[in-house]
Amino acid sequence: xxxxxxxxxxxxxxxxxxxxxxxxxxxxxxxxxxxxxxxxxxxxxxxxxxxxxxxxxxxxxxxxxxxxxxxxxxxxxxxxxxxxxxxxxxxxxxxxxxxxxxxxxxxxxxxxxxxxxxxxxxxxxxxxxxxxxxxxxxxxxxxxxxxxxxxxxxxxxxxxxxxxxxx
Length: 167
What we know:
This protein is mainly β. The chain folds into 2 domains: 4-79, Elongation Factor Tu (Ef-tu), domain 3, CATH 2.40.30.60; 90-149, Roll (SH3 type barrels), CATH 2.30.30. Helix content is 3%, strand content 37%. The protein has a 6-stranded mixed β-sheet with strand order 11-10-9-8-13-12, with no helix packed on it. β10 and β11 (129-132) form a beta hairpin. Its main location: cytoplasm. One of its GO terms (cellular component) is ribosome. Belongs to the RimM family.
């Protein structure tokens, strides 16, 4: 399990007083994890200033805020509460081996992403696969055994309209 867990990413500057947009990857208020830190170990103390805006302690103007755009903020794993029985953090899925219900290996979970429409897993290949992280597509998650069971959704190949070349 990774020792640092990605909790948020700083977006673009907002206004002239050092506010930044924030994309949080957690359900709890981001300030409950203060201080957070970046890849280099620099610490940040965040204060919410709206639905997706934060003020960072020591950042007082737009120029300072713009310098932080794109910064990823982490928290140490041991600062997170232990998940309940039959629960886990999405980051715990990375590295698990994926199998079909009949035991056919599908690869390893390389990443878990969520772009707003629900999480999906990237399985190493060959071929590389994207699998929606739903109960129907991933009915069994066994963190202790280091594996998941995947019921891959039906794949559909879309052909280009007649007369157009395939890429």
